[in-house]
User: What shape does this take?
Amino acid sequence: MMRIGIFGGSFNPPHLGHRAAALFFQQSLALDEVLIVPAKQAPLKAAPGTPDEDRFELCRRTFPFPVSDMELRRPGVSYTADTLRELRGQYPQARFFLLIGEDQRENFHRWKDWEEILSLAELFVLPRAGEGRDGFAPMDISSTRLRLKLLLGEDCAAYLSPEALAYIDEKRLYQPLTPERLHHSRCAAEAGQALALRYGADSEKARLAGLLHDCAKSMPFEAQEALCARYGKPFGPAEYASPQVCHAFAGEAFLALECGVADPEILSAVRWHTTGHAGMTLPEECVFVADLVSADRDYPDVEHVRALAAENLHAASVYILEYVFAKKKAQGKPVHPDSIAWYHALKGVI
Ligand SMILES: [Fe+2]
Ligand SMILES: [Fe+2]
Assistant: This one.
């Protein structure tokens, strides 16, 4: 009787940890075949932001096993029970094994038709990272963390197959920053770190927030809008009146929802880097100012703003806000109300 293993997931992107798991699965159970099944949309999760065909191709370039597009072809949420039923029809004689993670086992009774799944396949539970077992040490990486590393332009060769990495680079997947924007982000990271050191904020967090602050800048407005709505902070009239500030709000949503960033200081520094708000914290203000004094900036009075920033952070913020107000007035465009609120708060203390 043919023994077939099934390994499903979002694979966004698939990494060497997945590959090692699939091989361990095959060897442990002496499987004749392992079928890799990328999900169109995993239950209880938002649809992956990466196109189906790219995740499929990345799977092909990661696993030494066949990749099935059966879930990608099925519209809507991908349920394992549907997949197993379909496979049972195709291979009436085979014995099926389903690979799941330790964390998935705890919630298995919440899966759709879980009892039927157990009648169609036997479960094989993979040990959690840090809990090596039977010669298998899970790789300490997740797709979420990998997406953040790729976004930051870090070297990911240790986590991805060379073929998958080449495809990601070629198609610029998971890299929303253009090379120019990445350069600006690195300069802003350096400036943010320096200001944080100067004024006593957490310099590592300021550096990271600086690197990430414009991550949603190239995203179409509709995509920014959808992300913020999904994040539970939908746009209001002030955002629709000032669409150019919205990449900051979308950046926060993107980092939290798509890249696993949970640090509130980093998220809020990204969120408020375009408008500011009345209760600006020191780390938020460091990133706000860093964005305008970074080494790549060359507007006429940038040296003056840099000198102000080195001397008195609030004075630099006031100067920047007054500049923004004047520019908006000349363009006949409204100023975001959060910027006005912060300006009044600053004038009260400066
Ligand atoms: Fe920005
Ligand atoms: Fe920026």
